[in-house]
Amino acid sequence: MDLYEHQARELFAEHGIVVPRAEVTDSPKEAREIARRLGGRVVVKAQVKTGGRGKAGGVKPAADPPAAELTARQILGMDIKGHRVGKVMLAEPVDVEKEWYVSYVLDRAAGRFLAIASAEGGTEIEEVAARHPEAVARVHIDPAQGVTSAKAAEIATAAGLPPDTVDVLVRLWDVLVREDALLVEVNPLVRTAQGGVVALDGKVTLDDNARFRQNRWGEEGTGHDDPLEAAAAARHLNYVRLDGEVGVIGNGAGLVMSTLDVVASCGARPANFLDIGGGASARIMADGLSVILSDPAVKSVFVNVFGGITACDAVADGIVQALDAIQPTKPLVVRLDGNNAARGRAILREHAHPLVQQATTMDGAARRAAELATAD
């Protein structure tokens, strides 16, 4: 359950982390009044559950209340990576002296939480990690011990953060634990020209298993501003939209994550995460394909299934049902292995759809899907 930025900032403030004054609205006229209350000059920020808002034009300064109204009118209704902007947040501007990145995330493989921090904040941390991996500190946290002042000082030292960020690191851990979060991120955490440490932006993902304790957010917190994610949720699909061109379907979160990595290694970008689960039926397979093929950015689809509980012939039946129902114009590369794989492959051969290709290995299927997606 991802929260909007304004909700994440609300949590930060409740736990004693300083954030700039801000208000949220879906009305350009009200944006003018909010700007007036905040002192005139503001930053107008699209409220969508995706990154890259600034590059897309979803974060803009406004010099006065009339400009705030005009800017809000421009941003409201925008499409940012498939997310329609329904609300904007107007925040007081901050004179920034230095920017940092800090986050806590659950590392399932290690069975611990992971602190990720860098003295190079304000940019996409993935780019920083790729260009300068030494600039990003990764420190595992024993959940039984948590982040004490001593542990926070260790994290700050490893990342090259100053001592006055230690208290914020402790408080961010408090947010994670007390609010049932799987991810807490601030980018950037800044020092202002006045010497204060302020969280300018926030991202929080709450554990879906704790919804019964986190019902304060209601529909706004649990809803989807991406129409494809909303359509997938209505079908009870475990789907996350990404910004690539190869649609991905797999059975099991680990297999899907590996599939995303293999697609990326072949020179293409995954368009989504979709796990059809260990006992997926033909209906679920058909629903998943329908959602993915509705994404205009998708140029090809890679279906990667290892049959265990899920029988490959049921998956093949689902693919056939989806093809008959939606009449796609995009190619599919299918790799079936495991339980009833031979029967599943035979079903697809017998159907002989011109857009379906089969591959025997995951690497081979990924290469072919990438080739189809990136071909001119």
Provide the CATH top-level class of the largest domain. Answer: Alpha Beta
Task: Please state the second-level CATH architecture of the largest domain.
Answer: 3-Layer(aba) Sandwich
Mean pLDDT, to the nearest integer, reads: 89
Q: From the alpha-carbon coordinates, what is the Rg to the nearest angstrom?
A: 23 Å
Count of helical stretches: 13
Task: Walk me through the structure.
With about 375 residues, the chain is an alpha+beta fold. The chain has three domains: about 20-90, ATP-grasp fold, A domain (Dna Ligase, domain 1, 2-Layer Sandwich); about 95-215, D-amino Acid Aminotransferase, Chain A, domain 1 (2-Layer Sandwich), CATH 3.30.470.20; about 225-375, 3-Layer(aba) Sandwich (Rossmann fold). It contains 13 helices and 18 strands. The strands form five sheets. Strands 7, 8, 9, 10, 11 and 12 form a six-stranded antiparallel beta sheet that branches. Strands 1-6-2-3 form a four-stranded antiparallel beta sheet, covered by helices on one side. The protein has a four-stranded parallel beta sheet with strand order 14-16-17-18, sandwiched between helices. Strand 16 (about 300-305), helix 11 (about 310-325) and strand 17 form a beta-alpha-beta unit. The protein is globular and about 70 Å long. The two termini are about 35 Å apart. The mean pLDDT is about 90.
Q: Could you name the key traits of this structure?
A:
globular; 4-stranded antiparallel beta sheet; 3 domains; Dna Ligase, domain 1; 13 helices; D-amino Acid Aminotransferase, Chain A, domain 1; alpha+beta; 376 residues; 6-stranded antiparallel beta sheet
